[in-house]
Amino acid sequence: MKLSTLPACYTNMETMPKADPRKTDSLAERLADGDPLAPRDLVERHHAELYRYAFAMLRDVHASEDAVHDAFVKALEALGRYSSERVRGMSLRAWLYRITLNVVRNRVKKNREVAVEEVPVVVEKEGGGERFMDALDALGGLTEKQRVALALRYMLDLPYAEISDATGWNENTVKTHVRRGLKNMRVRMNIEEETK
Amino acid sequence: MNVSDERIAAMLREAGEDITAKKDFGPLVERSLADGADAFFTAGSPLGTMYVVFGPRGVKYATPHPASEEDFVRHYGETFGRLVVPSEDDAMSEKISAIFEGEKAEVAVDLSDKTPFQRRVMEVVSRIPRGEVRPYGWVAEEAGAPRASRAVGSVMAKNPVPLIVPCHRVIRNDGKTGNYGFDPERKVRLLEREGVPVEEIAKAPYVATPTTGIVCHATCRNARRIKRENRRPFRSMSAAVDAGFRPCKVCRPVAAA
Asked: In terms of domains, do A82 and A157 share one?
């Protein structure tokens, strides 16, 4: 078949709107419809951001890798059990964030039971290590809610509405945690309050 | 937001980028998928194109029925409550294809959701060689439950991995081929393809020879060596035993319970 005889939609690929990588609604549809490639797309699409989230909370490479692995296994197993109607209506991204936080919490709890002293921080120091760990160490000293709020807002760059979905807090509560978190960070990092 | 807050926000953004920079998530993605979902591939078989599923513990399911991959994925989810993704493991699909083509290949079958009896039945049946058949009663005896012919029948009816565990090689105690899914004719064609003389066995599932005084299943490798003029066909084991023959030690025929 000559190119000119193809319908227009085939020849104008470059003008088609690009799929938004953050959009998971269509992925929920594809999972519900039995698209065999959908589970892999789900894991590939969200692995990096969930790892970033886990690391912000745990500050340990292996613990974070394991936490994300466990979160995905829980998520995939649940998606296998759910009816397609239920899967179709899910906000997968927010759901994955909630599962990840649960796994992270359980790990922190377990670690506390194992060691009375604080778990040592293990980080692969590669490029720009110092300052990035300063910020993460300071973050580690905040309350869990403030840590979650700052990690999602700045490290994951989520808008307040999505943070609200991922945490179950309303948007004003999220804003409060972000504000208090920033204030605490300022104190911990010895940064003087400056105004323009 | 004041200037110092902006500095902190910028540091956190940078920290976030540093965490994932230069990190290869490929192996982690594979590990999550391998543990959270099962894998499938398709392979040509005497029953048509088969969808085959395996997990970490071995092959779990094989079916020739679905019309499309989407149908299959949904059907698997509804039946097993697990997601299933295309396999990346060529070694497994090559082994299964070899089995479907009639070659010998060892493959682990995941029997973790079976009872001990069901597991023993599946193991006994998987040892029946190509070209041979055994009655339900024999499988029951070998599985350690001599009177459980019917129970063997229901394990076979629910065999999740047809052809891989060759339930088509298990026949009725009277020598007739018996049921096979929705299509008993298919069982006959499968057996004929493997060189089993189906009609002969329906008349006489046992063969004895006066030269040794031994009686075998008609498809036992020893029975096939008996010269034409020495073949003594029997309809039942009890008739052969009454005639003074003793059971072969290789195929171990038993009187049906």
From this structure: no
Nearest to A34 among B14, B29, B71 (CB): B71
Q: Does residue A63 sit within a domain? A: yes
Of A51, A79, A156, the CB nearest to B83: A79
Continuous segment of H or E residues that includes residue B54: strand B48-55
| Domain definitions of chain B by residue range | 28-100, 116-247
What mean pLDDT comes out for the span B221-249? 93
**Average pLDDT value for residue range A145-161:** 96
Using an 8 Å CB-CB cutoff, list chain B residues near A73.
32, 35-36
Same domain, A31 and A43: yes
Domain assignment of residue A51, yes or no: yes
What pLDDT is recorded for position A7?
A: 37
Q: Does the complex come out with an ipTM higher than 0.85? A: no
Q: A-chain residues within 8 Å CB-CB of B3?
A: 194-196
The answer to whether B80 contacts chain A (CB < 8 Å) is yes
Q: Which of B5, B51, B80 to mutate to test the interface with A (most CBs of A within 10 A)?
A: B5
CB of B52 less than 8 A from some CB of A: no
Same domain for A29 and A94?
Answer: yes
Q: Do B29 and A44 touch (CB under 8 A)?
A: yes
What CATH code would you report for B28-100?
Answer: 3.30.160
What is the domain range of residue A178? Answer: 127-196
| Cβ proximity of B184 and B178 under 8 Å | yes
Residues A153 and A178 in one domain: yes
Chain center to CA of A37 = 22
- Cβ atoms B234, B256 nearer than 8 A: no
Distance CA B79, CA B124 (A): 26
- Statement: residue A57 has pLDDT above 50: yes
CATH number assigned to the domain with residue range B116-247, chosen from the 4 options 1.10.10.10, 1.20.120.140, 3.40.50.300, 3.30.420.40: 1.10.10.10
Most B CBs within 10 Å, among A31, A42, A62, A73, to test the B interface: A73
Asked if A49 and A30 sit in the same domain, the reply is yes
Closest residue on chain B to A126 (Cα): B18
Partners of A154 on chain B (C-beta within 8 Å) are: 9, 12-13, 16
